[in-house]
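Worked example

This section walks through a single chain of length 256. The input is the sequence exactly as stored; nothing has been trimmed or padded.
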Amino acid sequence: MNSLFDLSGKTSVAIGGNSVLGSAMAKGLAEHGAKVAIVGRNLDKAQEVVKDIEHTGGVAKAFQADVSSRDSLVNVAKEIEQWSGGWDILLNAPGKNSSTPFFELGMDEWDDIMDVNLKGIVLTCQIFAKKMIEQNRKGSIINISSVSSTTPLSKVFTYSVSKAGLNSVTQFLAREFAAYGIRVNAIIPGFFPAEQNRKILSKDRIESIMKHTPMNRFGEPEELQGTAIWLASEQASSFVTGTLIRVDGGFGSMTI
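Given that input, the structure is written out below as tokens.
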């Protein structure tokens, strides 16, 4: 059974792998044998994740890139190719959020969030998936969505819209890349104590979240590892593509 989840010999690129959720999933991939490129705008944070991976016997390297810049992503792809020769797994986990009310929302802020959460995913898929196809590498692309992508959450208008777009990108590319043996799926996390949502977690909002979460608690970042490892494994999820997989404590099952 363990061989189903063995990622030995595989290289994973973790975009946003220096974030709370991204780093947890990247560490899980490394623990199952994948060589991991940790990519983030903040190189110091990326290097801290690498140290944690190396401490447990894994192999990783930190890289710096701006996910909203094509040139930056092209350059980091070249650097990662020089380091590993290529990649088999692309984990897209960048994220930016804001609680600005709709009528106060400026287009600079809209563009900033969209550039990271949606445009950035499109760019990474264009650049990294193209190289996978050129190298005839079958593999897995894992996009990190949100519960706000299916039913928009209050106070996070732009974030919700960006993640809804990400779901559409995921399903479109699943069809586009299937002929090349590349699977594309998205994980829909529920409420995890990540950086981008801490600032809007007031006492009242936490109470509301718990009322809508049957498991009555927040998720722990490590609880995303199993799904990420499963989707990354060519053996375990070989017939899974175009799916949006909830890891949300039952939040998506609630109505009233």
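What to look for: The chain has eight helices and seven strands.
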